[in-house]
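Exercise: predict the fold of this chain.
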Amino acid sequence: MAHDPSSRAALSQSRNRKDTSKPSNTSSTPTAPSTPPRGAAAADAGEPAELGADSWAGILAPRLAQFAAVARHEHVTRAAHELGMPQPTLSRAIVRLEDDLGIALFARHGRTLSLTPAGRAFLASTERALTDMERATESVRADADPTAGKVAFGFLHTLGSETVPGLIRTFRADHPRIRFQLVQNYGEAMIERLRVGDLDLCLTSPVPDYPDLVARRLDEQKLRLVVPDDHPLARRKRVRLAEAATELFVTLEPGYGLRRITDALCAEAGFTPRIAFEGEEAETLRGLVAAGLGVALLPPPAVPRPGVAELTVTAPRAVREIGVAWLDGHPDTPPVTAFKKFLLSRRGLLLPR
């Protein structure tokens, strides 16, 4: 399971901050192309090569397997038989490759060929490239396998100890070989990872509302006012949030969904919370509350924490919605489709009661 490195494992005392087309050369003597392909020029300039039709990669990729087969057999006819293509077509392809490169890759000896020094050097790189392509193909096909593929799944830290393990256990009862890449982070970071393709699905709160995403509400979770067990409010079972208006709060950092919900609920109750400490983990905040450093609005813990009292908030209605999100228009592999369908079937049943 991965934690995004951009999520800093830090706890800081609060301070004021804002949220923030080439002509054909039929000569028997290869000649260098008059203008290098765009990808080669970019590489010479120290820039990333563009894989366009006029880049070296675009020109060479379809011919590497042909070149490697001829190099293995040192015979065009036998290589053509292996590749299942006409011998004249393969011969022309090899000549065109040499013309494009401006380098003789083979020395001709009647019907047989042998690699030139340049050809041997080119073959070594070609074989590595073909091996890498084979591995990449096997990897993406394995990830898309309906019964043993992979799902990249992100979720909030507060859902990691109980909710997500339970979900995966239940899902894998019917899909025992499907694999998961699990990423814990805060909501906005996971949404960005959805957009760049690092994640297939994520559980987050609040339920996002962006035009490039599809999001579905799955459940809601009550938030509690957590106070030290020797606090005057600790003897209560219920409290109006306005009764904590004068308290110091410990909260998650700006950018976290729970922080936005906390700020919004306090505003609805008629006050702006005075922030003493900001952190990244709900259980760290509970520890700060137990140490008497403030109060907090938090979801229920997986395991009761000593040193604190957890009060039901009667007004305003203190809940957070949990939803699943994915990139709109993004094609799903069969494993992702299966897990998405499973999550949507858990509406109202996602969280422990």
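Check your answer against the key: The CA atoms of residues 229 and 309 lie 5 Å apart.
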